[in-house]
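hey m, so remember when u said the tokens were messed up on ur end? i reran from scratch. heres the input so u can diff it against urs
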Amino acid sequence: MAQILQSLYKTLAAGLALLIIVLLVVTSITGNPIQFSHAWGSFVFRWLHVASGVMWIGLLWYFNFVQIPSMPSIPDEQKPAISKVIAPTALFWFRYAALATVITGLIVATMQGYLVNALMLQPGVVAIGLGMWIALVMAFNVWFIIWPNQKKALGIVTVEAPEKAKAARTAMLTSRINTLLSITMLYMMVAQQNAGL
């Protein structure tokens, strides 16, 4: 077991294997096998959407609740471990989790037949539509404001010290805007089917 848990990819593969085993056991107990239908496909994309969203917002909150507030208390000689190793890796997963969340969300909305109505904020899908628009703004911020500025702040793109400091501040403030938006976005995403909005 330790061999599996020492590797992220083996752990993920084991997690998927466990899911398959659990599904086989549950379907044999209930006598209700999985029906590979449009509804099942829609559910799978919703599950992928939620999993991607957990990673995206989890990393957003990690940056804002843990990394940014902790940086002032980290000794200068230890800061390169964050800026050269941890932050670039976290930002990779952050960017692509945002992209995966948007793509899977658009697929779910298309498969369920409410994409256009939600984006047009039509009655019956106003909450999910607002959530989608907020998420699109947040994803735009990730790819076109936070990431370009983080590349400068982390030294991935070489710039002068004043521009580096300005880029770090812009990335941080935009990340805080996304944190602010995430509260309403998450509420609207869940409210659509649970609060009758």
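this time it looks ok to me. The chain has a mean pLDDT of 95. if urs says something different then somethings off w ur setup not the seq
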